[in-house]
Amino acid sequence: ARLVERSAADAASVRAIAPTPLAGVMFVARGSSDNAAVFGRYLAELTAGRPAGLAAPSIYTRYRAAVDWRGYLVVALSQSGSTPEILSICQAVRAGGATVIAITNQPDSPLAAAVDLVLVTDAGPERAVPATKTVTAQMLLLTVVAAALGGSAEPGTGLMEAPGAVAAILADAAPMADLARRWHAIDRLVVTGRGLAYPAALETALKVTEVTGILAEGISTADLRHGPIATVYGGAPVLLVDAGGPAASDIAELRALLGRRNAAVASLPVPTALPEAVQVIVATVRGQQLAWALAQARGTDPDAPAHLTKITATT
Q1: Over the stretch 30-47, which tens digit does the pLDDT of each residue have?
Q2: Would you say residue 242 lies in a domain?
Q3: Does 80 have pLDDT greater than 90?
Q4: Cα 61 from Cα 294, distance rounded (Å)
Q5: Degrees (nearest 5) of the Cα angle 167, 169, 174?
C-alpha cells in the first residue's frame, strides 16, 4: 500500500531524470530480480512505447565492452544493492552516458550511492533466504516507472486494487496446499505463460526449484509449443499462468493441447477482474505460495533452502 500511495511522487522523479528524447530502456538484474526485469521490459515497450531489453552482465564484467548508452534509461534491480556484478554494470553504463535508476530494498547500499535515482521497495527485511515480497515490490515499482515514461499522470490508478488482492491471496492458501499434496512427489515441472504472464511463470519456476529441489522450467507458451512439448505427456505436471489480456487465448489453446497429451495440468488461480499487470503480480504471489506449500509437503525448509544465499557475490 505504501508504494501505491507513493507512486505519483516516484513517477514524477522518474520523469524528471529520464533522457529526452528517450532512446530506450535497459534492465540490469540477477536471480529473482531478473524475472522482475523481464516484466519491466514488457511494460516499458507496452506502456512507454520504447525499445527495451535486459543487459548481459558478462559483456561488461568479463568482456569489458565499451557501449554507447547515451539517451538510454537503465534500471538496475537488486534486493540488497550489494551484488558486485550489478554495481560494476551500473558504473559501466553510466560511463557510457546512461541515466541509471536503482530499485532496491536498501537505500544506503553501494548501488544506491552509484546511480542517478533510487526507488526503494520499502518491503522490510526478507526473513527467508528466497526473495519474495521484494520481488513483487520491484514489479509494482516497475509499473510505476513504465507509466511515468508513458506520460501517465496517475500511475497508481491501476494499482489501487493490488494490496487488497494480494492480501486475499495470502489468506486463501487452500488451493495451493491442495495442489502441493497432489504434486508432492514430482521431480520436474513445466511452468508456462505468455505476454505479461511470462515473467510470473519464470519466477514461479525459480521459486519452486529454489525451495524444493524440483527441477522446474519456466518457459514461454509459444516456445513450449515449438518442440519442448514433446517432453510433456502421460501425467507430466504443467502449471499454466494466465493473467488474461491478449495472450489468454494462447493459454486456452495450450491447455487443450496438453489435455490431448494426458498431461497433469493446473493453473494459478487469480482474480480475473484485475488489470492485467496487477494479475501478474498477484499470480507471482500465488507461485510463491505454491513453492512454500510444496516445500512443506516434501518436508524441506522453504525459508532456508540448501545452497541458496541472500547475496551472491558474482562479478
Answers
A1: 999 999 999 999 999 999
A2: yes
A3: yes
A4: 37
A5: 135
